[in-house]
Amino acid sequence: MSGFVFKQFSVSHEQCAMKVSTDGILLGAWADLTSGDSLLDIGAGTGLLALMCKQRAPHLLVNAVEIDATAYAQASQNISQSPWPDIVIYNSDIQSFTSEVLFDVVVCNPPYFNDCLKGGDHARNTARHTDSLSFAELLVAFDRLSHQDSIFNVILPCNEAQQFIGQATAQGLYLQRHCLVRTTKNKSATRSLMSFGYQPRMCEPSILTIHNEDGKYSDDYVALCKDFYLKM
């Protein structure tokens, strides 16, 4: 199998444009799941986020949306072979996705490239570039599929995160949690983990360092991810 074996489930990803990544694992382990009973994963890819969130909060009714048919098929297989085959996944773009349920929690590891050159792989371009799902379209989708107490969890590179925060604020959302992620203590943060909501909260950014100087995972990273990695 080409993929990752976690403690409670496995994820094949050879058919997916975007493979299992540290970004996805970070968001799945960090996302705020404390409120509500229903969750939507936008851009499911391999199904990793949906599976991680379901492991963390088994009571959640988890739905996922994936635009790419090949990724949708692989995510469906990963879900069906997991302990949580009740996760529901739809082959759809989020712009036209409709639901009778307004979701309590939304998670997304969104495309963020907008100015760089594209390669010849259409599926990878769709997964990586914002012309398939702009930040504005993503925020409109969250607004349409959420309610006043909903939480929106996102991970982005730090530069793009500042753009996203600006657009989210303009739409009436508040940054409620913010974690800056750096690979080592001596490097600048490269990723922003963010939770947004409609209610204002005090938000003091935290810092997560992935590796110690010796190359081993830091205590903070182990504490965050130990329920998922096999050898942790």
UniProtKB/TrEMBL annotation:
UniProt keyword terms in alphabetical order: Cytoplasm, Methyltransferase, S-adenosyl-L-methionine, Transferase, tRNA processing
GO MF term list: methyltransferase activity
Compartments where located: Cytoplasm
Bilayer-crossing regions: none
GO biological process, any: methylation
SUPFAM superfamilies: S-adenosyl-L-methionine-dependent methyltransferases
EC class name: transferase
EC number(s) recorded for this UniProt protein: 2.1.1.223
Reaction equation(s) it catalyzes: adenosine(37) in tRNA1(Val) + S-adenosyl-L-methionine = N(6)-methyladenosine(37) in tRNA1(Val) + S-adenosyl-L-homocysteine + H(+)
Residue ranges occupied by any Methyltransferase small domain in the UniProt entry: 36-114
Pfam families: MTS (PF05175)
Gene3D superfamilies in the record: Vaccinia Virus protein VP39
PANTHER family: TRNA1(VAL) (ADENINE(37)-N6)-METHYLTRANSFERASE
HAMAP family cross-referenced by the UniProt entry: tRNA_methyltr_YfiC
Similarity annotation: Belongs to the methyltransferase superfamily. tRNA (adenine-N(6)-)-methyltransferase family.
Function: Specifically methylates the adenine in position 37 of tRNA(1)(Val) (anticodon cmo5UAC).
Protein name (Swiss-Prot/TrEMBL): tRNA1(Val) (adenine(37)-N6)-methyltransferase
Species this protein is from: Pseudoalteromonas neustonica
Classification of source organism: Bacteria, Pseudomonadati, Pseudomonadota, Gammaproteobacteria, Alteromonadales
